[in-house]
């Protein structure tokens, strides 16, 4: 702050002059002490001047209301929900989340540093604070074919950026504890900054070695006992409650039952879809659920504010304290915790405010680069009696590796796999670097009939993944995604039914949430008509089938991957 | 950590190889969760490798014992206790304090950056972690005549020193809130680092403005209500329990009675004399007293460890967590909290270890520079009937400004003040820069008869201060301190009774604690024989009589200072 300006603000803080804006008679949540105290809050220049008794040029009476610091989502991915970052944020901020600590892992896997720059640019002027953790595992594994490698060398340019807080979720725990050079280069680069973890199910000794490498957070914790193992070691547990992964109940129940010290916990969403945010809220949901489970509201609010701010070194956030940013949430009461108003830097968030459209670099809309893809290459020769089949597990992203006799027919003197109601064909086609790599496999339990579904969203490398019961429609679907440079598509009976283009890196639509929602609804309806089970989202399910780190069997452009055995097959018919 | 070394330590942490040192079967205090959990602690290279079940090349069985992180004194002055920094620390570390956050305010007032360098050098190799806060108010006020001015420009060279954590106690609150250029230059220089406060009794508005300037700690808080005012504003309260100022009971009682969240509190000693440390302990005393007042031991231990570490950004301290420094305290039990053993970087503190003697720069032993001082200049002419008298307040450092008729006699045709049993003469003589400035005054309640007492320790500028009932002895005493280049001395009947030389900056003896203690005991005995009341330390009392910020009346080389009126008199006989 300029000294001259400080002098003016100091006079306001001291009550010698009227403040710009005063919230009168609020029950103010002091996050440092975890108390509500009735008083006024003075604001100017988007900052808190002080608490006490104040007069302002503008006064807002909050008698009977509760005023809290804005909430912090301590870990999330912005690009997982099909809309642009400003759209997602404009929804979430209405629910009181004013700070987002994002890991642009998907964007980086497609477009490397351009993807990170995209996230930084798109969030520069949103009415919220967006900080970025540098994705640590791009590519995710050494068997991935993704769009870019993010080495420590490439990360260096970001060190001075004040919005880059540290290193993103370090998923490759074994590289950490084994002391891999490239991993430790990245860890060393972010020495003195936050290094986020991703460490479910490590043994106590491995967790010690992982923590010793400097990793101090984890958002993958799913139960109370493991959460305590992490907390004791000084690993902050970011309790996750998103669309898919919901860990809050298990952890908070344990906290409540054991009267646990809650300093070691924060809240995050990791991945939460925009429609759910719109319907039920964002970090305010974590707070509400925690309170419902018996956590005192003061402790839940500390997790959502000061504890996250402290964990990420954001000393100007998370508190209604002099000098802190005036990010504020007005709550109706402490039972319903209804969000009445949200302020960012002292400015009220307008619910009907149109979301900013920030153009993106043209190269980010040109990321689907496929070589030598022909319908013929979708053929799958039956080279033995049994095949490794990817069996879907309902409601889970894990799969089962089954060796089964699958339907084969003779075509032009060759035995070929022939999909039926039970077994469908699946293929993954490398789409970043014209490598021409692709692989076909067999999936059981997907259920599609009379067509194909394809997507350019497939974790973490985001190659084209397609599933269907006939090569013609599968071929059409893949070609359609080349045309639209990414998206979701359904082909049926030799023609494209409908496509949701996701032209930004093949991950994000810039057509606006309403449009996305309308198209997606029609496509999901159609997918279910084509045999996909109700309560089963084919696009989300597809998006995980190429993720090699999840057990038991996956499909990648290099072949069928057996995760438990760490073994790659060229064909599902290989032993 | 070098990667190669990490790999080896990682194998130990994972239990794949024996650790260097294992503490077996301890009740380990996990400061992040505030719990004791029985387990082993593995150590190598002075670091914690992990907690769990371990085997070690060396194993120490701690069955039935309690193992805690080393304690942190979050604010203290090393130079206030007459012995060298290594001596003080070697006493305190035996009681479990392994980290000291020191403010070399006195050293800087005498010798500027040389004084700060002295503290840094003397503590470089002690068996403890010593961090330094840059003294912010040198000189303390603009009416002080001290040895050096510490401007932001001079502080710049220290910014990169990893042992300099920030700006020391900012006593001049009014310069802060009024926006003084030189004060804000210093505050700005330490932006992003810790800026310690010193803010007793600010109004709520001033406290807001003070906090808005970036100040985030205070150790001057004396009651619970004010502590909460500070905590709510994000000012960490360092609960002080030293030799003179004892604030713990008032604050902790409030915490216990109100069930207050204790995250916003740490412990400090500020000033604690070596004999008291030797007798009763150091930060362990704060812990014990707090527990006795009803604070759960876990909360007290958090204040003494992780909370202080967090407050000062010392992420490698304050916890028994992988990667943290192996500073450890073994406690007998949770009732007596007896300190059995202390480890610094995994090495046991030997109680009989001889304190290191680190030579100091010769210029630091040559700091008493007096000009034109003659016995004649001690004469005090009675220019009016009434004089401003400095009345001592028993047990307090405050004084009362009394206008009284004092004894005067005629000598050589002039009326002169003549000390008696009630009124004695006092003088302060500038001793840093040969300015020749000096002033005489009248003190009531000091009680010395038949001699004089002089000291080169007088806060904050540390000029020579002398009190006596005759000019001859006063003159002798001052000359003696010039000869010894600082110290305490007593003159009686025309000769020096004894002197405790404090040759290092006129503040510190390098003769060793035993010697200091022996000399000081003889001198105190003598002082009491000469009329000083029992339970009254003439040297400590003298040391505060030149401190202009304390009400009501002080003596400085420039004159008699009336603190309430902010007015300087050339002579006590002025109106």
UniProtKB/TrEMBL annotation, chains A, B:
Gene3D superfamilies: Metal-dependent hydrolases, Urease, subunit C, domain 1
PANTHER family to which the protein is assigned, alphabetical: ADENINE DEAMINASE, N-ACETYLGLUCOSAMINE-6-PHOSPHATE DEACETYLASE
InterPro entries listed in its UniProt record: Adenine_deam, Adenine_deam_C, Amidohydro-rel, Metal-dep_hydrolase_composite, Metal_Hydrolase
Domain Amidohydrolase-related: 66-346
Cofactor: Mn(2+)
Organism classification: Bacteria, Bacillati, Bacillota, Clostridia, Lachnospirales
The gene coding this protein: ade
Catalytically driven reaction(s): adenine + H2O + H(+) = hypoxanthine + NH4(+)
Membership in a protein family: Belongs to the metallo-dependent hydrolases superfamily. Adenine deaminase family.
Protein name: Adenine deaminase
């Amino acid at each position: 702050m300029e000294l001259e300006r400080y002098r003016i603000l100091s006079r306001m803080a001291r009550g010698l002059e009227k403040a710009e804006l005063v919230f009168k008679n609020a029950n103010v949540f002091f996050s440092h002490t975890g108390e509500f105290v009735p008083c006024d809050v003075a604001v100017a220049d988007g900052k808190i001047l002080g608490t006490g008794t104040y007069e302002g040029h503008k006064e807002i009476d909050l008698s009977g209301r509760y005023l809290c610091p804005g909430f912090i989502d301590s870990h999330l991915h912005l690009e997982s929900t099909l809309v642009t970052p400003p759209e997602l944020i404009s929804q979430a901020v209405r629910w009181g989340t004013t700070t987002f600590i994002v890991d642009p892992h998907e964007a980086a896997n497609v477009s490397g540093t351009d993807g990170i720059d995209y996230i930084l640019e798109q969030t520069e002027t949103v009415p919220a604070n967006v900080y970025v953790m540098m994705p640590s595992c791009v590519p995710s594994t050494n068997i991935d074919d993704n769009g870019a490698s993010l080495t420590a060398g490439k990360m260096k340019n970001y060190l001075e950026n004040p919005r880059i807080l540290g290193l993103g979720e370090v998923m490759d725990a074994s590289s950490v504890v084994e002391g891999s050079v490239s991993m430790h280069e990245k860890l060393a680069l972010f020495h003195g900054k936050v290094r986020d973890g991703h460490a479910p199910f490590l043994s106590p000794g491995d967790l010690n070695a992982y923590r010793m490498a400097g990793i101090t957070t984890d958002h993958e914790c799913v139960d109370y006992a493991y959460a305590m193992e992490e907390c004791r070691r000084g690993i902050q547990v970011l309790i996750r409650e998103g669309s898919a992964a919901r860990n809050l109940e298990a952890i908070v129940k344990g906290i409540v039952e054991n009267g646990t010290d809650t300093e070691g916990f924060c809240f995050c969403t990791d991945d939460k879809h925009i429609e759910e945010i719109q319907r039920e809220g964002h970090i305010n949901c974590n707070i509400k659920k925690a309170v419902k489970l018996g956590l005192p509201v003061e402790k839940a609010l500390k997790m959502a504010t000061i504890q996250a701010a402290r964990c990420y070194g954001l000393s100007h956030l998370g508190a209604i304290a002099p000098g802190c940013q005036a990010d504020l949430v007005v709550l109706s009461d402490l039972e319903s915790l209804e969000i009445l108003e949200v302020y960012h830097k002292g400015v009220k968030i307008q619910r009907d405010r149109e979301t900013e459209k920030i153009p993106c670099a043209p190269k980010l809309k040109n990321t689907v680069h496929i070589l030598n893809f022909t319908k013929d290459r979708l053929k799958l020769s039956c080279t033995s009696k049994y095949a490794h089949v990817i069996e879907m597990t309902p409601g889970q992203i894990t799969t089962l590796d089954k060796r089964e006799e699958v339907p084969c027919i003779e075509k032009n003197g060759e035995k070929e796999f022939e999909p039926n109601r039970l077994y469908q064909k699946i293929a993954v086609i490398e789409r970043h670097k014209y490598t021409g790599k692709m692989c076909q496999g067999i999936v059981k339990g997907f259920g599609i009939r009379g067509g194909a579904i394809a997507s350019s969203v497939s974790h973490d490398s985001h190659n084209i993944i397609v599933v269907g019961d006939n090569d013609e429609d599968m071929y059409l679907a893949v070609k359609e995604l080349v045309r639209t440079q990414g998206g979701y598509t359904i082909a049926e009976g030799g023609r494209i039914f409908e496509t949701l283009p996701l032209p930004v890196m093949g991950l994000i639509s810039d057509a606006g949430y309403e449009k996305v929602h309308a198209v997606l609804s029609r496509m999901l309806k159609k997918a279910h008509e084509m045999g996909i089970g109700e309560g089963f989202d084919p696009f989300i399910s597809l998006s995980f089938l190429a993720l090699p780190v999840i057990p038991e069997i996956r499909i990648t452009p290099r072949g069928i991957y057996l995760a438990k055995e760490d073994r790659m097959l060229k064909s599902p018919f290989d032993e």
